[in-house]
């Protein structure tokens, strides 16, 4: 019986009986007293399973007074794809979040627990992290002091006065806001907040906050249902006005990837007889959707609505103008296959 099998058997014994004698454990597991001692120590120290020796009952039991309220579970030999991705992503996120700042005292115990969970199977945590890679692209730098003040206002339900830089307009503005929730999206942090200057809900990129001041005035509370209805239905992180539905046709080649991708909770998709794929996604602001469309180049055609189709077409025309001279010069030369992940014909994907 392997180590993981023994841990599962021990948990099963305690689920059937409140008191388990040393003789029963040794007999069921078929191990030496020294091995049993090591297994119980691992459960106590690494898996937060409070197994104690009850002298009066002459056996081991789980002490409820030492639990943290979370359900005690034992790991298997390996995690599922969703579980290991979640654990590694959480660890990656926590390790890079606010070191030494507001959340550090709360984050460190979580990181230690994740290390124990990742190393609970037969492979140590360091080996799993070395063999499984979480790649983050597009992360923008932000000031930790700003993040700390935003967190304090968010949890203390206080208002903030911020100096905010809008990249799209290349402008700065002074705002008083009531923070509602932090959102981690595509490697960056965003703050959903009520803007008292605009009199409505807005989404702010935390890395675009140039100055922040914590105020003593109570924050305006907005129900989660309202937050979701205003900021949630469209595509991506940008909020907008009326929600429209984009219809996108992907070539048979690219359809093999896109058909398996998750673009939006309310997306719909279907294959055409020629192998192409029609994807329908709701959106209220075209910016992020247009970026995702353009990355597929000639393999994606916008069928509608007409406004989105026109915007993408105008962008393509501008791109052709920008590269027209270079394209003429490079036309006789083969540029070779793409080296992008997922696009290279040599990739095993």
Estimate what percentage of residues fall within beta strands.
15-25%
Uncertain stretches of 5 or more adjacent residues: 68-79, 333-349
Please count the beta strands (DSSP E, at least 2 residues each): 11
Spatially, the strands of the biggest sheet line up as 6-5-4-3-7
Largest sheet: 5 strands, antiparallel
Query: How far apart are the termini?
Result: 37 Å
Order of helices and strands: HHHEEHHHHEEEEEHEHEEHEH
Count of helix runs: 11
Q: Percent helix among the residues? A: 25-40%
Structural write-up:
The protein is an alpha+beta fold and 349 residues long. The chain has eleven helices and eleven strands. It has helices spanning 3-16, 22-29, 33-45, 81-95, 104-118, 125-131, 144-156, 224-231, 252-258, 286-294, 306-330, and strands spanning 51-54, 59-62, 158-166, 171-185, 188-195, 200-205, 209-218, 244-250, 268-271, 277-283, 300-304. The strands form three sheets. The chain has a five-stranded antiparallel β-sheet, sandwiched between helices. β3 (158-166) and β4 form a beta hairpin. α4 (81-95) packs antiparallel against α5. The longest helix has 25 residues, at 306-330. The model is unreliable at 68-79 and 333-349 (pLDDT under 50).
Features of this protein?
extended; alpha+beta; 349 residues; five-stranded antiparallel β-sheet; 23% strand
List the helices and strands and how they pair.
Blueprint: H1 3-16, H2 22-29, H3 33-45, E1 51-54, E2 59-62, H4 81-95, H5 104-118, H6 125-131, H7 144-156, E3 158-166, E4 171-185, E5 188-195, E6 200-205, E7 209-218, H8 224-231, E8 244-250, H9 252-258, E9 268-271, E10 277-283, H10 286-294, E11 300-304, H11 306-330
Antiparallel strand pairs: 1-2, 3-4, 3-7, 4-5, 5-6, 8-10, 8-11, 9-10
């Amino acid at each position: 019986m392997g180590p993981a099998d023994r841990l599962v058997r021990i948990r099963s014994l305690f689920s059937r009986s409140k008191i388990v004698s040393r003789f029963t454990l040794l007999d069921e597991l078929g191990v030496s007293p020294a091995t049993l001692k090591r297994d119980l120590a691992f459960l106590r120290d690494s898996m937060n399973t409070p197994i104690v020796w009850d002298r009066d009952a002459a056996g081991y039991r789980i002490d409820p007074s030492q639990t943290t309220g979370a359900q005690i579970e034992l790991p298997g030999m390996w995690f599922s794809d969703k579980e290991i991705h979640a654990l590694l992503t959480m660890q990656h996120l926590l390790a890079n979040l606010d070191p030494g700042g507001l959340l550090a005292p709360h984050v460190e115990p979580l990181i230690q627990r994740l290390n124990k969970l990742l190393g609970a199977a037969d492979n140590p945590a360091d080996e799993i992290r070395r063999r499984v890679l979480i790649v983050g692209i597009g992360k923008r730098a932000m000031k930790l002091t700003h993040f700390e003040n935003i967190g304090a206002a968010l949890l203390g339900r206080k208002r903030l006065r911020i100096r905010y830089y809008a990249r799209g307009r290349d402008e700065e503005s002074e705002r008083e806001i009531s923070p509602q929730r932090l959102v981690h999206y595509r490697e960056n942090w965003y703050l959903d907040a009520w803007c008292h200057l605009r009199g409505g809900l807005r989404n702010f990129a935390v890395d675009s906050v140039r100055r922040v001041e914590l105020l003593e005035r109570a924050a305006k509370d907005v129900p989660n249902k309202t937050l979701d209805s205003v900021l949630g239905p469209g595509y991506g992180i940008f909020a907008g006005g009326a929600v429209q539905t984009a219809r996108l046709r992907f070539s048979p080649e690219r359809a093999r990837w896109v058909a398996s991708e998750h673009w939006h909770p309310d997306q719909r998709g279907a294959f055409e007889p020629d192998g192409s794929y029609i994807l329908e996604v709701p959106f209220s602001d075209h910016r992020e959707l247009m970026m995702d469309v353009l990355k597929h180049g000639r393999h994606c055609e916008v069928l509608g609505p007409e406004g989105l189709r026109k915007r993408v077409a105008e962008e393509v025309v501008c791109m052709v103008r920008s590269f027209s001279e270079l394209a003429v010069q490079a036309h006789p030369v083969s540029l070779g296959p793409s080296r992008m992940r997922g696009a290279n014909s040599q990739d095993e994907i």
